[in-house]
Amino acid sequence: MNELLKITGLSVRDEDRALLREVSLSLRENETLAFIGESGSGKTLTLKAILSLLPDDVKVTGGSVRLAGRDMYGLKAGEKRRLLGENVGFVPQNTVNYLHPLLRIGFQMCDGYVTFHGRRSRKEAEEKAVRLLKSVGINDPERVMTSYPAELSGGMRQRVNIAGALMMDPPLLISDEPTSALDRIVQKQVADLYLSLLEERKLSLIIVSHDLVFVSRIADRIAVFYSGRIVESGTKDELFTEPVHPYTKALLALSPSLEQDRKEPLKEIKGYISEDDRKRNGCPFASRCPHAKEECFSFTEEIRLSGTHSVLCRLGRVK
Q: What phi and psi values does residue 255 have, to the nearest 5 degrees?
């Protein structure tokens, strides 16, 4: 399969600190890649770097992002917008803030499509929007097209966002926390929807999620972020059945189970991500790791365990 996205050595910082350090990953056609990790670990920031949506005070200081074979950081602003418009659909985390409260859904879905294509009519755009709303499971798309966001439930807004992201028929969909703020039944419906879209449209997908059940259903590969770095990456089977990095193991252990004793307290990862962790050249998790030794605070070697599985941890030497 062809490589649709390749990030090499991406580093991002604000005025005071490094936010991402040497992030490298790739995504092939028809593949799903999940980013997991605690809040503040760099997952959404990586998405924003891909989409050129970094805040004004945050800068890319190193590395490259290649999308559809082109170096994004070597393009002019207009060329970059067209490259992103043709290749990427974005489903944001906060459906309430992303959809404009004073504009009807139909206008929000169609305006960018007409503007981008230039010669396409509003009628063509509306017909396509209705088809897409039907395809994501909305039974009364004509009513939704004339509705305001506040008139829709959270699950319906999520479906509207997905349909809107597909208006340009992009080969890559990027979705930030697609099941957050939804009840468990709606979460399953959204997960089923993504699986059907991936099958029908042969999309590539990058998702950020704290929902490990969702990740286990949908992902082909997983990248584990901690303190602005990828500490382990591999296929879903490798990370769920043979995790190596202590942080990956601790993160997976947090997922509650119906079989666990209700009298037992929920598990937690002791400590927190500190600024010292971001500045350290060694393993960023060392200050919280129960297996840490002196060498961990300077350990920088990425150990490749297989063709798809790599880890930033000395424990990978003895796997």
A: -65, 120
H or E stretch at 70: strand 70-71
pLDDT value of position 202:
92
Q: How many CB atoms lie within 10 A of CB 312?
A: 25
Q: Which helix (H) or strand (E) segment is 24 a member of?
A: strand 18-28
Residue 187 pLDDT > 90, yes or no? no
- The answer on pLDDT for 152 being more than 80 is yes
CA distance 171 to 232: 26
Q: Could you tell me which residue, 272 or 229, shows the higher pLDDT?
A: 229
Distance CA 181, CA 316 (A): 36
Quickly count: other Cβ atoms within 10 Å of residue 229's Cβ.
Answer: 22
Quick one: which H or E segment has residue 25?
strand 18-28
State whether the Cα torsion 255-261-264-265 is positive or negative. Answer: positive
- Give pLDDT tens digits for 14-66: 988 899 999 999 999 999 999 999 988 999 999 999 999 999 999 999 999 99
With the CA atoms of 291, 260, 217 and 44 taken in that order, what torsion angle do they form, in degrees rounded to the nearest 10? Answer: -50
> What sign for the dihedral angle of Cα 47, 51, 57, 63?
positive
Give the distance from CA 224 to its chain's centroid.
11
Closest CA to 219 of 91, 37, 34: 34
pLDDT in tens, 119-139: 788 899 999 999 999 999 999
The rounded distance, in Å, linking the Cα atoms of 206 and 92 is 12
pTM for the model: 0.92
Residue 64, helix vs strand vs coil? strand
Report the distance separating Cα 51 and Cα 73, nearest Å.
Answer: 11
Round to the nearest angstrom and report the end-to-end CA distance of the chain.
Answer: 29
Radius of gyration, alpha carbons of the chain: 21
